[in-house]
Amino acid sequence: MIMYKNDEKKFRRDFYSLIDLAKENKELSDRYTSIAHRILTSKKIKLSKEEKFLICRRCNKLLIPGFSCIVRLKQGFLTYKCLNCGNVRKVKYDKRIRRKSDKIGE
Q1: Cα 2 from Cα 65, distance rounded (Å)
Q2: Is Acyltransferase a UniProt keyword of this protein (predicted)?
Q3: CA atoms of 43 and 46, how far apart (whole Å)
Q4: Residue 96: is it exposed, middle or buried by C-beta count within 10 angstroms (0-12/13-18/19+)?
Q5: What does the domain layout of the chain look like in residue ranges?
Q6: Percentage of the chain lying above the pLDDT 90 cut
Q7: Which percentage of the chain shows pLDDT scores above 70?
Q8: Residue among 91, 29, 93, 90 nearest 60 (CA)
Q9: What is the mean pLDDT of residues 55-84?
Q10: Nearest to 79 by CA among 55, 53, 46, 60
Q11: How far is Cα 23 from Cα 25, in angstroms, rounded to an integer?
Q12: Phi then psi for 25, rounded to 5 degrees?
């Protein structure tokens, strides 16, 4: 199956519209997320790192901070805990925050 760039652009637009609809309508969020996941697998499209954290790996539910997941900063890691299945994902982050004024002097 050959996929053209236009198809991927169209998919990304549709994917984000499904995610936005899921955030607005809590009852249909599971359905919209499953449709988006089905499109992902059928078209064999890879998500970016940021997009991967929108969907839980274990239960395929949409992760909305404060609604369906808890986001915490602990010991150099950003942790996402799904409230549906309890799955925890960790991302390492750099504690040192560089300001623009620090970069100018280099």
Answers
A1: 36
A2: no
A3: 9
A4: exposed
A5: 5-104
A6: 16
A7: 83
A8: 29
A9: 89
A10: 53
A11: 6
A12: -110, 100
**Residue 25 CA to its chain's centroid (Å):** 18
Q: Tell which wins on pLDDT, 39 or 65.
A: 65
* Residues contacting residue 14 through CB under 8 Å, at least 6 positions apart: 36, 39
Residue-wise pLDDT tens digits, 5-53? 667 788 888 878 877 887 788 778 888 888 877 877 887 778 888 888 8
SS (H, E, C) the chain: CCCCHHHHHHHHHHHHHHHHHHHHCCCCHHHHHHHHHHHHHHHCCCCCHHHHCCECCCCCCECCECCCEEEEEECCEEEEEECCCCCEEEEECCCCCCCHHHHHCC
Chain centroid to Cα 14, Å, comes to 15
Residue 33: exposed, middle, or buried by beta-carbon count in 10 A (0-12, 13-18, 19+)? buried
Q: Which long-range contacts (CB under 8 A, 24 or more apart) does 93-101 make?
A: none
